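Lecture notes, unit on binding sites. The following record was shown on slide 14. It pairs a sequence with magnesium ion.
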Amino acid sequence: MISIANLFALDSEAVSAEPYGCGHINATYCVHTAHKRYILQRINHHVFVDVPALMDNMARVTAFVREQVLARGGNPDRECLQLVPTKAGDSYLAKDGEFYRVFVFIEQTLSLQTVENPIHFYYSAVAFGRFQQLLAQFPAETLHEVIARFHDTADRYRLFEEAVAADVCGRAASVQEEIAFVRERKDDTAVLTNLLKEGKLPLRVTHNDTKLNNVLLDDQTGEPMAVIDLDTVMPGLSVYDFGDSIRFGTNPAAEDEPDLSKVYCDLTLFEEYTRGFLEACGDALTDTEKDYLPYGAYMMTLECGIRFLTDYLSGDTYFRIHDPEQNLRRCHTQFKLAADIQNKFDELNAIVKKYR
Ligand code: ADP
Ligand code: GN1
Ligand code: MG
């Protein structure tokens, strides 16, 4: 990785590179030179099959966000992800069938795996809401759809049934309860995409992977700095971005927590996120979008659980795992959380009503 890093236009020679972060998709390394740190990533080209298209999105979105931050008097070095070109001047490196890119390391920031202090969650909501605002004038139709039907939950359901039928690992018999949980909710999976088709929810430029660890917070004040992990920035629904944050951040337990009694949607955290998100992008959202925020949280959680279960049935080919049962544990937490969100719809709607 050190020799790969040295093919990029760093400030000086790279001297070390070690694995970094907790992403499930790309392989991330922290690279040191004598004076600076960088993030080096090997892009997962099984997930992102068209890397040139992905990097074209990334280069244009980061340049656009940078201009917007400058225009608003912000500090682009802390508030924007910044690509470092290769020595040949390209935004990424293709070498021996793999693809790499480098970012400037944004120092003095936190990337949290769970909410340690509710204010951090509020600030992450402000970051993602602000991100929507910064990209409001970006020509959405010029973005490549890097993963087709990424949050089309009905399509995820179809892929799930295919994986159950194929049962390539012989695991289906042992997950009958989980399969039944999904099947009971089949009709729900088309609700949001139908609203889009009917023109009741607008298509927007969205981040599509608004996990808490995809925003960097100032390590002193907790205030939002950069939104990162821009691989999945594509046209999408605002309720997906809201929902995915709720899925990841309101659950006090880890995504693969084995003790399901620790997994639930914390209402205080839901309120903090709703407050931040509506403050940051409230006026830009339609009434129907606001109505469906809790449903978006339910759907992103159900969808994520379906994806983990599908991957478990398919032999763990998509999400990085550290042990053979990890995708199943991840599925269990998501189903527990999805059911909890469903049970709490009245309370969640009341919170949205308070801040809308
Ligand atoms: P993945 O798609 O695999 O989740 P990310 O792009 O989210 O990869 O990067 C993984 C982790 O690396 C992040 O959660 C964050 O902790 C860290 N990271 C990524 N980019 C930067 C950056 N520019 N500065 C500091 N930390 C970063
Ligand atoms: C993946 O890249 P990362 O780890 O931030 C996944 C998301 C899932 C998430 C579940 C491109 O996100 O869609 O919600 O894992 N990213 C992709 O933790 O599939
Ligand atoms: Mg990430």
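Take-home: The chain has a mean pLDDT of 96.
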